[in-house]
Amino acid sequence: MNKQEEALSSSAVTDTLAELGRYFYSRGWVLGTSGNFSAVIQSEPLRLAITASGVDKGALTTEQILQIDADGRVVAGSGRPSDEARLHTAVVKARGAQAVLHTHSVWSTILSEAHASAGGVGICGYEMLKGLAGVKTHEHREWLPIIENSQDMPALAGTAEETLAKHADAHGFLLRGHGLYTWGSSLAEAKRHVEILEFLLEVVGRTQQNT
Amino acid sequence: MNKQEEALSSSAVTDTLAELGRYFYSRGWVLGTSGNFSAVIQSEPLRLAITASGVDKGALTTEQILQIDADGRVVAGSGRPSDEARLHTAVVKARGAQAVLHTHSVWSTILSEAHASAGGVGICGYEMLKGLAGVKTHEHREWLPIIENSQDMPALAGTAEETLAKHADAHGFLLRGHGLYTWGSSLAEAKRHVEILEFLLEVVGRTQQNT
Amino acid sequence: MNKQEEALSSSAVTDTLAELGRYFYSRGWVLGTSGNFSAVIQSEPLRLAITASGVDKGALTTEQILQIDADGRVVAGSGRPSDEARLHTAVVKARGAQAVLHTHSVWSTILSEAHASAGGVGICGYEMLKGLAGVKTHEHREWLPIIENSQDMPALAGTAEETLAKHADAHGFLLRGHGLYTWGSSLAEAKRHVEILEFLLEVVGRTQQNT
Amino acid sequence: MNKQEEALSSSAVTDTLAELGRYFYSRGWVLGTSGNFSAVIQSEPLRLAITASGVDKGALTTEQILQIDADGRVVAGSGRPSDEARLHTAVVKARGAQAVLHTHSVWSTILSEAHASAGGVGICGYEMLKGLAGVKTHEHREWLPIIENSQDMPALAGTAEETLAKHADAHGFLLRGHGLYTWGSSLAEAKRHVEILEFLLEVVGRTQQNT
After folding, report:
1. Where are the alpha helices (DSSP H) in chain B?
2. How far does chain A reach from its first CA to its final CA, in angstroms?
3. Which pLDDT band, with edges at 50, 70 and 90, does A197 fall under?
């Protein structure tokens, strides 16, 4: 890929990230400046486009998306990357993901508390599971690990790395009282995973109310 | 109908299918590439416009709608038809339907599990039932059969055919853990049936929470 | 008002009715062609603009709004008025209302069943009540009578007239398993009443789930 | 700031207030003409832009936003300011807020009743809390005091002043059966606080249903 193509590609990625942010906001999944999103622009060395910290996702613009390297240093754009940038790079390294999306919905927050003592949420028997990459049947059992929330970012990133290693099949994880992380081999796949997991968490949450 | 009229008609059908897909998506009924929609373009021999497999319904375009024949072979357009195309052709044959719509909402998913052991969901006493074709009174009892989900598509289509024959008055059915199928003598009627059944399933689901 | 002014006024009314219909649809309050809306265009003799029967409120146009007289006969426009036109004229006569709006939401449907044996829903203590015409304090107690649903329209209209006479202070009523009727001295007031009563019914319904 | 700059700034503020109103309305947080919003245009002497009483927030225009002084007198624009203008000026004085936003959602209404006997709602352990100004950790405990509703505005404003003094760390308060007040050092911060507190109140409300 020559310089010009890369620039175009990078521009397409930031456009899509900004659009995704506004869309998730419209669904109520990233209110109050919560949530953050990233996508790989270049692999070697790693260049990750990522939303700046503390921006209103309902009015997200491409100017609010930075580029960081593998160590989280800003290499393009102005502003501060999300404090959780380390979690994004950890997912990219552990999964070879091309995009990492973190939403913060009512249902993911509720289930991350309600299932904290179990260490995760098990989801099985739903056709929607087949939309997760590599899943062929609704009989698949998805285990979404729950990681205890922390403001110590290096520690949290370390726990996330361990969790990703331990649960090598997981398509996402929950931070307790905080929300959902998922990813994909493309932005489109990562978006699909957000919709699927948010849908399933709502189904599980409402089912528990019904019984 | 001459060739030109048919082409126009086919184009109007695919436009409407794409618009319906985006509308259902906005309601949260076909997230994560779930759901699929079809409409008859020609009866003899059967030509069915149907959404391609695995496409994002929030950005559904007419290019993502194929034409298949009665055996599910692609006769126009590129891409793969939904795996569930056999269910669409089964409904068209059994009911003489002109359109078949499959949505995948939170409430239809929840009720398809909660009522699975009963084999279906009975709905009675609601004025909204009068919007179903041929129903004249809210005292009508609609029985939505629940079919056990399966990844064996010929087997699932066979079960659907039996269910359609056994419950000749049903305006739709649920696949367990999967969602709603309904249909109509036109796309407008099928859309109305989706809205009515999704509404009623939400009412039934929330009523059970309230008691 | 001369002929030309009247024509303009009538056109403004039908524009607003069509806009209201599309708005209520977007909120999910009139799915599946449910709901109907009317507004007085002329008092002596009565000319009521009213939505035609069985139209999709999400695509409601001014062409789908007819004019009827006090006996429900169509005097302008084509199509059939809603079967419930008699309820609209009954409300106009009993309350001197300039607009009558009937919505069909999930919560109004649920509460109309859950409170049927009590004959109505009592709502008290909410600031939102102050938005109802003539209400000065949140300590106001609104009693929304519930009328048993029926397909015998003359009988239903008769019951509605009795209910309106008996509950002279009510700002609306529920048809069991069917939805909400409310009205106002203008279209804007009637719209406000819909929003207030739908809001309060949701609050009451969810509060019962919480206890 | 010279006269022209001030005029521009005032215009930007009213534009943003009108936009915020329409946005909150789309979320269902200010139905039925409920809710009111203000922002400081000038500090010495105080000039507060504030929504007029009884206007439909879904169609809020800049013409429906007035200017009042510290005593609630209209100094620019026509119409009557919200009856609750005293609460806005009380918050501005007590907190040095630049913007005060009052929403009226289903969940804030429900929780303001359910927790009334406790005098407030305690919220702890959620990452979303970090979006509140000055909060550094999800372990923060936010206490939202609940004030008994009243139609005696001077008395209500007095109680609000006492509450603000007593709970100097609170980022908002609830009026019983009425809704949420929050504020910020800018309109953007106040909007963020609305989203965060409305989100957290929904989480708390639904969690109580789940247990």
Report:
1. 3-26, 85-95, 106-114, 153-166, 187-210
2. 55
3. very high
CA dihedral over B43, B47, B48, B49, signed as positive or negative: negative
Q: How far apart are CA C74 and CA A100, in angstroms?
A: 60
- Determine the length of chain A: 211
Quick one: B115 exposed, middle or buried, by C-beta within 10 A (0-12, 13-18, 19+)?
Answer: buried
Those residues whose C-beta lies under 8 Å from the C-beta of residue A150, and which sit 6 or more positions away, are A156, A159
DSSP structural state of residue D204:
H
- Decide if C162 contacts C119 (C-beta within 8 A): no
**Chain CA centroid to CA C74, Å:** 20
CB-based contact C186:C193 (threshold 8 Å): no
What's the distance, Cα to Cα, between the start and end of chain B in Å?
55
Interval A13-57: pLDDT, tens: 999 999 999 999 999 999 999 999 999 999 999 999 999 999 999
Burial letters for B40-70: b for 16+ Cβ neighbours within 10 Å, e otherwise?
Answer: bbeeeebbbbbbbbbbbbbebebebbbbbee
Hey, which residues does A11 pair with through a beta bridge? Answer: none
Amino acid at position B79, single letter: G
**Residue written as token pair 């809390």:** D129
Six-digit token pair at C38?
A: 């009317």
Q: Quick check: A104 contacting D, CB < 8 Å?
A: yes
% pLDDT > 70, chain A:
95
Q: Two tokens at B122? A: 């009975």
Say if CB C41 and CB C77 are below 8 A apart.
no
What are the tokens at D162? 């006492």
The series of mean pLDDT values per 10 residues for chain C, 211 residues long, is 58 96 98 96 96 96 96 92 93 97 98 97 97 96 97 95 98 98 98 98 90 54
CB B187 within 8 A of CB B166: no
ipTM of this complex: 0.94
The structure tokens listed for D70 are: 């510290």
Strands (E) located in C115-198: 120-124, 141-147, 172-175, 179-184
pLDDT confidence of residue A84: 92
Closest of C91, C114, C58 to residue C190, by C-alpha = C91
The distance of A98 to chain D (nearest Cα, Å) reads: 26
Chain A from 106 to 165: CB within 8 A of any B CB: 125-128, 131, 136-138
Query: Which residues in A lie closer than 8 A to residue D133 (C-beta atoms)?
Result: none
- Residue C207: enclosing H or E segment and its boundaries? helix C187-210
Which residues sit opposite C102 in a β-bridge? C36, C181
**C103, C110, C153: best to mutate for the B interface, most B CBs within 10 A:** C110
* Cβ-based neighbour number of residue D125 at 10 Å: 17
Cβ neighbors of C148 (< 8 A, separation 6 or more) are C116, C159, C176
Distance, in Å, from the CA atom of A89 to the CA atom of A97, rounded to the nearest integer, reads 9
Q: Are D194 and D132 in contact (CB under 8 A)?
A: no
Three-state helix/strand/coil letters over B144-202: EEEECCCCCHHHHHHHHHHHHHHCCCCCEEEECCCEEEEEECCHHHHHHHHHHHHHHHH
Write out chain D residues lying below 8 Å of C192, CB-based: 32-33, 56
Beta strands D172-175; D141-147: pairing state: parallel
* Residues of chain B contacting residue C114, judged by C-beta atoms under 8 Å apart: 207, 210-211
Q: Locate B92 and state its tokens.
A: 């068209």
Check: CB of residue B177 under 8 Å from CB of residue B112: yes
Tokens of B106: 């939170």
Tokens of C83: 């079967």
How many CB atoms are located within 10 Å of the residue D12 CB? 13
Dihedral sign, CA of B38, B42, B47, B49? negative
What integer pLDDT is reported at residue C10 of this predicted model? 85
